[in-house]
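Hi Y.,

Following your request, here is the sequence exactly as I used it, all 340 residues.
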Amino acid sequence: MKKITLSLIVIGAFTHIHAQVNHQTGNYYFNNPTVPATTFNPAANFSSSLGGNNNIVGSYSLASGYMNKVNAYGTFATGTYVTSNGLQSQGFGSFLRTDGELSFTFGAGTSAANPFINPFAKTFAISWNTTTPAFVVRNMAGDQRAGIGTFSPVNKLHIATGDDQGISLVSTATNQRSNIEFRDETTNLNWDITAYNNFGGGYGNILEVLSHKGGNFWVHNATMMVGSFFDFSSCADCNEYLLFVRRGIRTEKLKVDIASGTWADYVFAKDYKLTPLPELEQYILKNHHLPGIESAEKVEEQGIDVGAMNAKLLEKVEELTLYIIQLEKKVTALEVQQPK
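Below is the corresponding structure, written out as tokens. Let me know if you'd prefer a different format.
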């Protein structure tokens, strides 16, 4: 009974579908009789049509679907309102056109009046419901290039972005990292840009630029580190600084901004209290450094603030100048008192 039912279905289907072959040209089309038949150009040979209202000009070509046009040799057009003009080109989808030879176009434009057009030869293009390419692979003078959002990639990978668009590398698990590597022709690593999702030691999110010769660059919570990684566990005021550099900085010019009122010209004010020299001597004997200057132990432990230290050194120079002026006055007074 099942076999009889299946046979009846197949017979019924073929009563509504026509298949015709032109034995002189070898052209073949298979369509519903209620749909306008495919049009074959007289010069087209050995081409096929599946569907209706297709137009085939090229030989050894195929149009499958509705309202498709094939205008070149060895060319395919599959879907609806698909036009293939390029030699041995192929188009699959709706409302699209392939103009270049040996090209492939997939997806859909927005309408028959606004098709997605692939105008270039040797190009693979995909788009969905737009006239702008979503993804393109193109042979440009022998150089294979890929483009996202562009038909004209300027490098191996070209991503054209609009306003508020970008690229995302998304981790699929906790404590993961994502990276981009730069290697030479023998696959040796030159540079590695790594984003850590949860860097060890409680540092959280960190971006690292790694050189195979050392001298890494790190970014953590807007803090930049140059050189090997810094351990901040024993640093009491590290959160006050944004740049840490190992091995030193060499520059032709350095400018340090100084807060208002902190520069040492206040030493020359009339009400400035200059420490008497005997008192200063006792302080030095006891502490082994000048008043207002940190001890060697504290400097070794915490470092120095360049701006504050320069202001303090200037303060001591200006105090020394006042001491010299005082001594000069005493010497002059003694000279006056000496009998001539």
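The chain has four helices and 21 strands.

Thanks again,
Q.
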